Amino acid sequence: MTLTKFSRIVGLAGVDSSENQRAQYAAKLLEWPMMGIALWILIEWYLSAKGMSSHELSVFTNWLVFLGFLFEVTLLTWLVNDKILFLRTNWMNLLIILLGIPIILEGGEMAATLRGFRVLIAFQVFINASSTFRELLARNHLGTTLGVSLIIMTIAGMLIAGIDPGVESVWEGLWWAWVTITTVGYGDVVPVSGEGRVIGAVLILIGVGLFAMLTASISVLFISRSDEEMEENLQQQMRDNEIKAMAQLSRIEKKLERLEALLEEEKGRK
Q: Which domains does the chain have, with CATH numbers?
């Protein structure tokens, strides 16, 4: 299964590559503000878990998430040509908007439970905003693969440290995220809450995919180097042949000049 098919199944496809340029350009522009919203979700969640948040900050976050996703879905749905395909392959955005309504209106336990889905929102945004990352991977940017792995590991580590009582510090959270995303799983740090286990399950799936892409990127890297060496050898051979051809042409020109001189002499004698 390709990454594009997987993104469509989980509702993270974004704007299809066959869509018009306006829709694709708008999707690119929206990647950065949506990344900002995702980062704010993680910051507010961490502050809330540590008792450093406030009711006003929570209300602001609720409205920011709801309006941000509502604006993105509304604008892109209006711009794309195939609106049904866009909504069908981006159903996660619709789910986030629908879950945002009771969070804003209801409050209480229901809102607190639904806020647990915000970890999915954060991961959704980072994955959905990774179209540039996927393009770079297609061009064999190994450093991008490692960079994205580090970003996801850091976010997951900070997140688990803020919401799970089994993880006592950010450093423990980062260590847990590292051994989880590499699918090693020492078991010395284990999440005990439901939210923490959800994050762990998502991180394991991401880790499997990332390391599969990392392995493929390393393989392609060596293949690309071989291709580059072959291309350099071919270009060098073409340059050598060009030099030899120019030298041979120069010798032919000199012979023609001598022949012309002999003909002129012969004409002068006559």
A: 3-224 (1.10.287.70)
